Amino acid sequence: MTRWAAWGGGGLQRRLLALLLAPLLLLALLNTWFDYQLADSAAIQQDRQLLTLVPQLASAVQPGALDALPPSRLPAELADFFASRTGTSGYALLNGEGHVLAGEEWLRDYPPDTHEPEFSSQELGGVVYRIVTQRVQTSRGELTVRLADGANVRWQRVRRVWLKVVLPNILLVALAMVTVHWAVRRALQPLLALKNEVAGRSPRDLSALDAQGTPEEVRPLVLALNHLFSMVNAQAQSQRFFIADAAHQLRTPLAGLQAQVEALAQNAPAGMQEQTVRLRDATRRTSQLVQQLLMLSRLDTPGVLVHAPEPLDLKQLCEQVLEAHLDAAERRQIDFGLSTTTTWVEGDAWQLRELLNNLVDNAIKYTPPGGKVTLRCGLVSDATLAGAHAFVLVEDDGPGVAPDERARILQRFYRVAGSAGEGSGLGLAIADEIARAHHSQLQIHAGRDGRGLCVSLLLRAVRECAIPLSMRP
């Protein structure tokens, strides 16, 4: 497991945000903790100050009547303490029974059991007082001194921590999250562009990626991908060349063999008629397979796809296909009809002709004698389509194809189990390749009334103003 995998699922952007923001959040928490510790230190300093003022308060007690301690008899430090905390400080001198002899009545309490100072907190009038209590010797004997400080420095310090440390840190972290998130997205924009470029490519586009337009950290990955693309392209090209060369080398001997078999079929003895017909059909199928392999090799070669489509009369193209397959339809006693309107599309003539030839040939092969095959073309009136579109379809009333098999019959060399016709399983695959080259795809569904099979595709129609004058009827 790699280090990145240890982070679990998640993208690079979230990882960068976590790595950048986690230290910042940790520093903010450490800063808050240190300030909070300073608040505890301030509380300790307050207790120490109160403890140093207790002997001074005891020394200010004079013999005689004790109602109050006049400010003039207070030590300077103690006087400054009361002056700086007017309304938030107080004292009390208690006798052995806990009665207040001088000072604030609300500071009345039982004397402590020992002479050690005791600290406590008490709330009065919304003010939290820090109180030190200690039994001391005075000029009037042993008294209990209680000194209260309402300046709650610890709470003030904590409040200061919240107002001047915690809240600013929260705002700073929030602002940093927004800023870092924007910066990370901006920095990863080239990666997103690279991802979109790779995702938008067709399976046959193995051209090199632009390595100069990528960040330096990603450039080795792009170069490695380009190297992989070149190796895959070389291997695929080698396979295409092999298939094309093999099919091309087979064309000449197969053509001669087919001519001899055709001649033999016409002059075969009566006892060999059946065997001769089978040999002739096998030779025809082999020749057709070679032609289809050559067509696949040509379609798989980069550069032969439609890059500069030309206006084509789809009606005229359908009429040519009809003439080419009339004899085959008559031999199988199939009613082959044509229903077209004048429609101009953009495309490649030989590819679209090959597409229609394969669709019609497939329909005639699998339609039983006495059936019907119809070739249609025309314009589509659909508001959901952007721009003008034309359709072309081949429909038959044969056995059809089950819905779960319709997507698979477009695969190369795939034939439906139990098919009555003879074929190599390449016709529809070639037609689908040509449809994709024209930025379309074959649609396979049932024929009229749920009988047979209907194969159709949409093509972008050409407006009349875009048709050259020399090509108009």
Short description:
By secondary structure, this protein is of the alpha+beta class. Helix content is 49%, strand content 17%.
Please describe the structure with a list of short key phrases separated by commas or semicolons.
Heat Shock Protein 90; 17% strand; rod-shaped; Helix Hairpins; disordered N terminus; 3 domains; alpha+beta; five-stranded mixed β-sheet; 473 residues; Beta-Lactamase
Question: Can you walk through the features of this model?
Answer:
This protein is α+β, with helices and mostly antiparallel strands and 473 residues long. The chain folds into three domains: 14-158, Beta-Lactamase (2-Layer Sandwich); 219-297, Orthogonal Bundle (Helix Hairpins), CATH 1.10.287.130; 306-471, Histidine kinase-like ATPase, C-terminal domain (Heat Shock Protein 90). The chain has helices at residues 3-6, 12-59, 76-84, 153-187, 189-199, 219-266, 273-300, 314-331, 349-366, 427-437, and strands at 89-94, 100-103, 118-124, 127-138, 141-149, 310-313, 335-340, 344-347, 372-380, 389-396, 443-446, 453-460. The strands form three sheets. Strands 2-1-5-4-3 form a five-stranded antiparallel beta sheet, with helices on one face. Strands 7-9-10-12-11 form a five-stranded mixed beta sheet, covered by helices on one side. A two-stranded antiparallel sheet has the order 6-8. Helix 8 (314-331) packs parallel to helix 9 (349-366) and helix 9 packs antiparallel against helix 10. The protein is rod-shaped and about 160 Å long.
